[in-house]
Each structure stands twice: as C-alpha cells, then as structure tokens.
Amino acid sequence: MNKQSGVSLIEAMVAAVVVGIGFVAIYGITTSSTRVLLNSIDREKGNMLANMIMEDIIIDTQNLTQYHNLKFISSPSSQTTTVEKKQQKWKITADQLFSVVQNNSSECIGGNPREWRNCHYRKVEVVETSNGSKVYTISVHLSNRDGRAVNTFKRIINSE
Q1: Cα separation, 140 vs 55, whole angstroms
Q2: At what angle do helices 82-97 and 9-59 cross, to 10 degrees?
C-alpha cells in the first residue's frame, strides 16, 4: 500500500476558503463598528453644540422669538444684534466640530433634510407651547457626516 502524507490540493483550497470567509466576516464587523463609533462621536459633538445653543438662548429670553427658524449654515450679513452675533458664533463652532460642506447645492433646499446628501442642516426653532403660556420648546436640528444623519435636540423652558 502506498501511504500518502501531506495535504491534498482540495483540502488546501477548502482551508483557504474557510480562512477567507473568516477574514470577510472580521472586515464586516470592523467596518460596522467604525460606522457606529463615528455616529456616536458625531451625536456627542451635536449634543455639545445643541447645549451651547440652548444655554445661549436661555440667557437671552428677551429675544426668544427672534431665534425661531434661525439657520446657521452661513454667516449673517451683519453682526450687529445679539441674535446675529450668536448665529455667527454657532456657525463657527459647527464648522469646527463638523466638516465644512458646500451648502449652495439645489439638493439642499426643500423636502426632507434626512434625504439631503452633501449638505448641512442647521436650524433652531423656538415655538410657544400654547398662546400666552410663556412656555417654549427649543429645537436644534443638526445634520452631520455630510448630511447622512440628522439629530434633533429639544428643551422646554419657561421664559417667565
């Protein structure tokens, strides 16, 4: 009888396929965990920015309604009022925290901001909960990662 020792070609190919499948699985897990980590970091940056914005607004309750529908994707034309100065401050901080993206694209206008790509959506909304209540909901909407994620941060304040 002829005893063969060693590994046959078929066994070697099967082993290579098994190792290859393992590498593909590890690559997929690594890619997924990196994406989750980046989203978490962006959410934390957005949370810091939203807290700064809300604290600035709470300090300036006399001008509370002027912050409604305030977008800080571009610099205000003048920076004479308190609101315009804060808008400029928020824009600079947001640009430092998140990458700067061109905002003049037609795909950045209208529709659902969650469907925008390569745009930033940065907006503050201040809405009175009911007429004459002096209780307001402040919402800060921020997109990041080139518009792939939109987060909304809300706080309710009593302006009296």
Answers
A1: 12
A2: 170
Q: Is 82 exposed, middle or buried (0-12, 13-18, 19+ CB in 10 A)?
A: middle
Question: How do strand 70-71 and strand 122-128 relate by DSSP bridges?
Answer: antiparallel
Residues 6+ apart with CB under 8 A from 9: none
Taking alpha carbons only, the member of 85, 73, 93 closest to residue 141 is 73
In a domain, 3, yes or no: no
For residue 1, tell me if it sits in a domain: no
Q: Residue 77: give the domain boundaries.
A: 9-158
Distances (CA, A) of 56 to 4, 49, 61, 62: 80, 11, 9, 12
How many distinct structural domains can be found in the chain?
1
Residue 108 DSSP one-character state: G
What are the tens digits of pLDDT across the range 51-102? 999 999 989 888 888 998 888 877 788 888 889 999 999 988 888 887 665 5
